[in-house]
Amino acid sequence: MAKSLNEQAHSGIHGLHAYVPGKPIDDLKRELGLTSIIKLASNENPFGVAPAVKQAFAQFVGNGAHDLHRYPDGGGYALKQKIAARHDIEAERVTLGNGSNDVLELTARVFLGPGKNAVFSQYAFAVYPIVARAVNAETRMVPALGAGADMPYGHDLDAFLDHIDEDTGVVFIASPNNPTGTWLAPQAIEAFLDAVPPGVVVVLDEAYLEYQADSERPDSRQWLERYPNLIVTRTFSKIYGMAGLRVGYALTSTEVADWINRIRQPFNVNTVALYCAEAALTDEDFVTYSTQTNAVQRASLAGELEARGLICLPSQANFITFDCGRASTPLYQAMLHEGVIVRPLESYEMPEHLRVTVGSEEDNRVFLAALDAVLERE
Ligand code: PMP
Q1: How far does the chain reach from its first CA to its final CA, in angstroms?
Q2: Pairwise CA distance, residues 375 & 324, whole Å
Q3: Which CATH superfamily is domain 7-49+285-377 in?
Q4: Cβ–ligand 1 contact at 211 (below 6 Å)
Q5: N6-(pyridoxal phosphate)lysine: which positions carry it (predicted)?
Q6: C-beta separation of 248 from 103 below 8 A
Q7: What residue segments make up the domains of the chain, in order of their start?
Q8: Using CA positions, which residue lies closest to atom 2 of ligand 1?
Q9: Lesser CB count within 10 Å: N end or C end of the chain?
Q10: Class at the top of the CATH hierarchy for domain 51-280
Q11: Cα–Cα nearest to 209, from 158, 249, 170, 244
């Protein structure tokens, strides 16, 4: 008897659901009869693409995009050299990805599989369980810190240790974490790295690192020498405003980079993205502007939300997650009709929380006005 497609799809992914993308903004505008919509739902850079990237992109097109008929540089040589110089690390210890999501998936494909388990926190980034289950590994969710803790909803690293056993392949931690915005003290990360068995890979996801205050930011580079099992992931999507171009990278030991390169598709980062990411690294002014503005706007937005009696989770990222004190999906829907897209966190089992990206001063004003209008109608 022939098997059904349902039977053929492996057991690890049966409980997963396909990612439901938001509607394109222009379609939404038409549907809702709105002239403008502000999207504060995906933690993107509200100031757009870094100017150096725009310039590089224009230059690329101006040069007739002459080499687009060729495959990209499969080793990403030039970009890796620049990233390596920035982190004072050997270039062979940099692995590029089609966004840092790609690096997370590559990690799972190397170090997880049937019979192995992946450990991550409750309220952690949704991609960790997906990449683990995609390779038929078990997923172990560690209960997060309680609502009354210093870092409510944050990672409980002590509890992580209780979930790690001889079948653990990868542990995912994020600082700052999405969707909570919570972070880990550098000393806590270091103590954790000391306590994790050396054969267990620890992914330290630093997608939002640039948004942390200098005093809170770990220097994870130093740990890479001491912990060959550490994978630090970074992205060009946020601080450089390059989410649409898809470039991220991992910093690792030579050994881990070698394992990943054995299965990495050679052309996982495209030619335009490689070219633009190199340019991004020269744009320190944009990084400084984005981080400083984010810090000011984040504090102001948190203050405004708290003034409305809404409790915010502590955030060192470019978004704020707050407790609405009622179901957040209807609030999100009502705000959509006001022309502001935010992110309800029902799928993260935080049904009363909304996540809002910290926008420009004007974006935040519009967001607060929409929120007020919606709350007033209740
Ligand atoms: N890690 C975290 C914690 C994230 O929030 C995101 C993006 N939402 C990523 C990784 C992946 O980002 P990208 O693939 O765009 O680099």
Answers
A1: 57
A2: 10
A3: Aspartate Aminotransferase, domain 1 (3.90.1150.10)
A4: no
A5: 238
A6: yes
A7: 7-49+285-377, 51-280
A8: 207
A9: N
A10: alpha beta
A11: 249
